[in-house]
Amino acid sequence: MRYPPEQKTRSREKLVRASASLAKQQGFAGSGVDALASAAGLTSGAFYRHFEGKGELLSAIVEMELETTRSRFSTLEPRNEEQLLLAIDTYLSLAHVRHPESGCVLPTLASEIGRASAETKEVFERALLELLAVLSEKVGDASVAFALLNQCVGAVMIARGLATDSAKRQVLEAARKSARESIASLLSTARVSDDS
């Protein structure tokens, strides 16, 4: 029986979303095709109707996840300190640390992407640069945006490796403080420049 193209598209999106959630929680390399397909309520046979292998799925996960993050940040007003700080506080939260399955792909899968194929790395680089372009516009400075991204991702990665909430909070609070100082300094410099 042939399915309409839109059903195939919906099945593929469901597979990518469910696989992303599982991979962010349990790791991509350690999740077999059966587990990834099962997370979406599909069989491994259905998986291979959409993807030639796990590497192709990882590329699709990277693309979808970074597009979701980019879309989320694109709603912020440029150089709006309150919105930027709220976004950073949300990212650097215990909730984000505790729930990788619903969080950003960068702290969970960046190291696995580093061991992936050249094709997956190319998808990652393109999607990351698109995200950075949005962040640069919102922050007002490309190098500060890149530094903030690195700092936030690193803090979440480290916090996830710690045993106690008090240690996790300490890491997150230090990163929040540094991010707030960077943004305040950048925006105050921008205001002085605008006033001159």
Automatic annotation (TrEMBL):
Pfam families: TetR_N. Gene3D superfamilies: Homeodomain-like, Tetracycline Repressor, domain 2. The keyword DNA-binding applies. It comes from the Bacteria. The keyword Transcription regulation applies. Coiled coil: none annotated. InterPro entries: Homeodomain-like_sf, HTH_TetR, Tet_transcr_reg_TetR-rel_C_sf. Keywords: DNA-binding, Transcription, Transcription regulation. Residues 32-51 bind DNA. Residues 9-69 form the HTH tetR-type domain. This is TetR/AcrR family transcriptional regulator. It comes from Archangium minus.
